[in-house]
Amino acid sequence: MTDTPHINPAYDKEMTKMAFLLHSMEEALRQQMQDSKEAFVNMDSQRAKAVRHKDTALNQMKAQSVEQSIAILARYQPMAEDLRKVVSSFKTAIEYERIGDYLKNFASSVTNFAKHDESLMVFPLIVQMMDAVQQQFGDFLISCADDDIPAAIAVWQRDNDIDDLFKMLIHDALKNHKQGDGNAHSLVQAVLVANNLERIGDRVKNLVEIFYYQKTGKTLESEYE
Hints:
The structure is a single chain. The chain is an all-alpha fold. Helices cover about 85% and strands about 0% of the residues. It has eight helices and no strands. Helix 5 (about 150-155) packs antiparallel against helix 7. Plays a role in the regulation of phosphate uptake.
């Protein structure tokens, strides 16, 4: 994300620290998404365990980001676009941490599947959802880096595709269960996994709304009702 140097060099320095923290969270989430998917595809309980443990580092980065935001607000009392930028950074860190929580839950479900050696007909659809979520998050980051508002809006609108996949998975899981595919426990686990992915999609949608407000001072929903 490109920014014009501020009149106060100290403010710029503090915002650079904030940008570094957010970038670190982004890279951590990229890796967590990839590790979660590979753990699921291979039913690798050790890799899933590592995903859960790495969530602690993400929580710590979120805490540092929140502290940094509060410190900037207290020291510099920014106004207008500067204020929106600080508040947006604060909100973005919180959304990143929540995505990490959903990935942690996803990994816990993988461990349960692996423990019971379970395999369902809807598993390929779960992988498809994961691919869609990874693409959504990656495209969001690119749109922010390029200050590309139309591209970010396109990411926001694509969330419906993930919602549709989630609905399809629920339908297929119930249909397949009636045909003898899996037990009640595995059915619930599959729906929980898919729900966590759907919620990640919602969080990315929130991130686009935060980015849009930072850049325009307007709410995205009011512009595209």
